[in-house]
Amino acid sequence: MARILLTAENDVLRRYLGEKLKRAGHFVSRVSDYDIALTLLLETCHDVLLTEVDSEDPRGVSFAHEARRIDPEMRVMFITGFSIVPLLVDEDDEDGFSDRLGAPAHLSQLVDEVGRLLVA
Description:
The chain is an alpha/beta fold. About 40% of the residues lie in helices and about 20% in strands.
């Protein structure tokens, strides 16, 4: 199974998603602070970064860019207000992120989406 870094400011969301992923057999590090999350990324490899994106707070996207600079092989999935969106990597893309997004999924499908992301 995968080692997942979950960053979300919302305690309930972080707890819910973390438990759901743990029950599926993944090792999950749950963090509410981007600076702590960056420290974890420097100390430990993760297969997936699962992070929030909020239209009022652009730090989630900036954090994802920084995380991919630290570990270019790590997969990234954004949590939006109502869904999760896997980010597909395009090697020709300047910043390593593609503008092609997978279909949004309801949070109850999170484990399946993480599985698909890992084999993409």
